[in-house]
Amino acid sequence: MTSSPTTDSRPAAGHDAVLDLAGTWSLRLDPEGVGDRERWFAQDPDGGQDRVELPGSLQEQGFGDEVGVDTPWTGLVVDRSFYTDERYAPYREPGAVSVPFWLQPRRYYRGAAWFSRVVEVPESWRGHRVVLELERVHWESTLWLDEDRVGSGRSLSTPHRYDLGELEPGSHRLTLRVDNRTVVDVGPNAHSISDHTQGNWNGVVGALTLTARPPVVISHVMTLPDVERRAVRVQVDLASGTAGVGAGTVTATVRRLGGDPAPVSVTARFESEQSRDLVERGMVAGGGHVDLDVELGQDAPTWDEFSPALYELTVELETTVDGITSTDVRTLTFGLREVGTEGTQITVNGRPTFIRGTLESCVHPLTGYPPTDVGSWRRIIDVCRAHGLNLLRFHSWCPPEAAFVAADQAGFYVQVEGPVWANQGAAIGESRPVDAYVYEETTAILRTFGHHPSFLMMAHGNEPAGRDAEFLGHWVAHVRRLDPRHLYTSGAGWPVIPENDVDSISEPRVQRWGEELESRINGRAPETTTDYTEYVRATPRPIISHEIGQWCAYPNLAEREKYTGLMQARNFDIFADFLAQGGMADQAEEFLLASGELQKLCYKEDVEAALRTPGFGGFHLLGLNDFPGQGTALVGVLDAFWEEKGYCTAAEFARFCGPTVPLARLPKRVFTGGDDLTFGVQVAHFGPAPLEQATVSWALLDDDGETLDEGTVGASTVALGNSERHGEVTTTLPQLTAAARLTLEVSVTTAAGERYANDWRLWVYPPATPPRPTDALTTRDLEEALEAAGAGRTVLLLPELGPPHTDVALGFSPVFWNTAWTRNQAPHTLGITHDPEHPALAGFPSDGHTDWQWWELLHGASAMVLDELPVEVRPIVQPIDTWFSARRLGLLWEVRVGEGRLVVCSMDLHSDPGSRPAARQLLAALTAYLEGDAYLDGDGCPAPAVDADVVRRVLAPAVAR
């Protein structure tokens, strides 16, 4: 007798047929693995052992060890400086260990744990087979009934089920051994097992039940919807403990949930001869099947993201074996939903669909394991939908039943993956045990959850190594034959193979792994015209862009108070200490908000580039919420709890990410007054139907929201898709005497009053003028600057900096993923922060954070490390260093040297002023500042004063060249 993940729903039995085993169990830890040899299964469960509540994990209930330097983590640590760097020495002290690379559990345990309890089998169960179900186990379970070993299970994705046979009524002891060590090498960073995400917990969560079953049972039900016929084929597999299933009937009844139509029923009868015939033809003894077609009516509604109509299917099996009639019932939900492809587009029920997904990486900090209730998952899905998304990709893991139910109800799509990230030492296609496990787990997932209409797509797992293409070609063909209701791709990220329905590839995005400062966002001036047409033309299949974004924001240190459960944000404590050591503790929130604004605009360009591409399949964000592992990857506009951080609302995000998004194709973002503004208008519309009687409009607004110019473009109907261009607009920008921020808004309004709008910031600067005579000195020579300032002059120093001035690689974009995991890939900063009211910036409109007008100023600039300056020196423009380094950086700062003023700027303000209007304007703003007295404090001079040698040390590498 072994566990079997073959049933795809629970019996619709009365309360007397199910015993809930939730409650107190005895617990005994077995770190040395001696329990089996010492026959712990035969020992009294009340014999002085600990007590634990199931469902739950033993770690969240205080069992296990304190975290130490030698804790045997499950997960790769790329940057191992924690173990050697003197800076981390205080965090390696026994009893006070804090790790920087992921959330830290209050207790850690890796090994076997024994759970046991006595159950009372009622008299009414006599003659029934008894089944134990454990909804989610981490990881391998082994079960003993009294002193007899029943079997074991090792699914990370589906319930462990044990057929206990016919039990004598009365008391029986259940002993369960759960081992959370690596049973199969699925990859140390797979989100199904890793400390990077949920944590390597030990226990059982979700439903724990004993169920009485009749001799002949329904072992599996598959629903095959037919949208065109408005029907469903119901394939019912039967199983029996005897050689045959006897005679009986199978009745399938379908009713629409929330609808008025009466239920529809179809019944089929089978005879024992059929079962004998199956056995004679070599079929599995004790098995059989019945197929039924249920017509739902021509007005039966379909299921999709806009109209999630659900149906409840009840299959009732009535059999007679040895003259005894018994009944088994299965109930599940399904939808009339067909997913397919048409050229390079994904279709749902024949309509083109654009995938707007984000990752769900099994990050649940309070418990360390995923929730099994529908409400928790509905909250996450509602948050995603409010941000304009329509899919959750479960990265290298499969969620519990409740997640599918919530997605079904909400009309939200799901990409499921096997619990495998066979990389970083693991691999597939090399005859390792993981090869069989991929088939084992994905088959179990399809049989258990395949009926859910939200289950749209599947990959074997994430980013494989090994002989992946050959192995996964066979796998895709296998699972497609097994269950044709979904789209299949070999793996998330790669490989691209002909067998795929959809290609998941990491190339088409704004910044790719390893591009650093050569990426489009860092290496090319801002525009909104780039799309991925060349990728679409290169493949006959839909493309989903893999893990786009990965833009970091600064840690939200106030978030620490949320970690009231198992996981602790000790990594944030370290980062807070580093920030305080750099004299910047009071800037934590400022860094968060400024970097968050940059993160938001980078995601906007990432999403819009995909939406601009005709024929594109979609994208998966990495991610809408933070990923707390892999060195701490704070890539979300939401935190690890799926909650806002204070700089991006769902409504803001949904303006550029949703079913209907107006788009403007702008060749640049920075202009000179009197220039022509030319842009193309496009609408990415993947709603339920074309927009009839629609008006596509544009407006140019000033900083106060006043309209400077406006117009309409396009036709009266906005078709489904994103291939249609609605025209090109040219307007002349106003001649200006001062710099201005403008906003271009494009909107779509229907006769029914629906309105969809999106916008882009533009900057317009005055034309170049000859420099005015000034008493201030502008120089690139440090010694000349120091001498002049010492003599009482006002000086603007534009030093010649660059490598090897510092090891800080400054770009426009924020850190990609994080510097610890990427082995210090550039850029190393998280944008800039500044006071937009500072008088030095009076002629250079800005908002306190990086925006597109800063691109030409930051491109090629060098960040100066100001740690040797007094902490009172707050840069006028300050790059935000990565939280691992927390250096005080500057691009523009001011000090008093001798009797004079010294303003230092390491941005290029002098090259090619005719074609660099932002640099030209900032130089003009600084010149005006140097000539005025807005800098004066109450003592009539800027503070603080510093010695010339300190300035030399800050800029020393530039002097040495």
TrEMBL record:
Q: Which InterPro entries match?
A: Bact_Beta-galactosidase, Galactose-bd-like_sf, GH
Record key words, sorted: Glycosidase, Hydrolase
Q: Which domain of life is it from?
A: Bacteria
The reaction(s) annotated as catalysed by this protein in its Swiss-Prot or TrEMBL entry are: Hydrolysis of terminal non-reducing beta-D-galactose residues in beta-D-galactosides
Task: Give the GO molecular function terms.
Answer: beta-galactosidase activity
The positions making up the signal sequence are: none
SUPFAM superfamilies linked = (Trans)glycosidases, Galactose-binding domain-like
What is one GO cellular-component annotation here? Answer: beta-galactosidase complex
Keyword Hydrolase listed: yes
State the EC number(s): 3.2.1.23
Gene Ontology BP terms:
lactose catabolic process
Coiled-coil zones: none
Please name the top-level EC class of this enzyme.
hydrolase
Put simply, this protein is called beta-galactosidase
